[in-house]
Specification:
InterPro entries: FN3_sf, Ig-like_dom, Ig-like_dom_sf, Ig-like_fold, IL-12, IL-12_beta, IL-12_beta_cen-dom. There is one protein chain. With 309 residues, the protein is mainly β. The protein has 3 domains: 74 residues, Sandwich (Immunoglobulin-like), CATH 2.60.40; 95 residues, Sandwich (Immunoglobulin-like), CATH 2.60.40; 81 residues, Immunoglobulins (Immunoglobulin-like), CATH 2.60.40.10. The protein is built from 1 helix and 25 strands. A hairpin with a 2-residue loop joins strand 17 and strand 18. The longest helix is centred in the middle third of the chain and has 4 residues. The two termini are 16 Å apart.
Amino acid sequence: MNCFSINAFCCHTIPQMTFPLWTFGLLMISLTGAHELNHFPENFAVANRNENYTLTCNSKPDDIVTWKLNGDPLEDEENVELNGQNLTVSDIGTPNLGDYSCWRGEEMLSSTYLLLKADEEDTIDSLINCRAKSYDCNFNCTWTGNGYTAVRLGLGHNCSESCQWISSSRWLAEGELQFEMSHDLSPYAEESTMLELTAEAIREQSVFRTSKRFYLRDIVQPDSPQIVKCELVNEDVNVTIAPPSTWSAPYSFFSLEHQIEYVLRDDGQTGHSSSTLIPKKISKLRVRSRDSLVLSNWSQWTPWKNVTY
């Protein structure tokens, strides 16, 4: 219990329950059963339902090759046709999805996991929520989609061709996935470039892909500030507030504005103040902050602090 005492005036922290995060050092996270595809294969292709797709073999022109699907040799199966060293899969659907590998004798030359393009029923705004605690080079994204067995995020404008993909390594207590993302925007320059976030997710051998664009300032939400002390000034209380330790420095450049909520002792009425001077006769108070320049999202409120004389 913290107590800030000046002129016999104290603020006491009201105890608040916290919940731990479960953290696992996994490259890929499985959200459902162990028999699902719980990672993105090193090489995979995405095809449209009921269309044809040709798989190529990493072979030499005079090689005699054979193909396997999920480790089983392909011979006279329907919807599969050998064209030289390449393999064409027709009328693509669930039965002919999986790991296609090309072999020269007992040597595997290449493999490609054939997946289906999913119908985009979900939108990225309903699946992903991103938040930056400051203007530093990192921010977090939380994935809330159900039923997906592998998820990854990429940041950049060319993720359809090449991207540095990030896989989650953290479970949140509610069963959601959290991603740690990085960017190279300067915190001191005027923001003119939007970030582009791409998400890919696998469910039942289908790949869902979507993207969104936003400015960093749109996702900035500071952590809760710190109430340093309370002191009497004539008939008012002056509350000294410090930025959270995660906020960008110097504070003179990255300024915050604060809002104080308090409860009057006599009648229990609630009041708000953007000034650090508030009425003396209060029973408790709490504080939140936001970027004063771009008017970012407000931080979460601090825990209530009891006020005694």
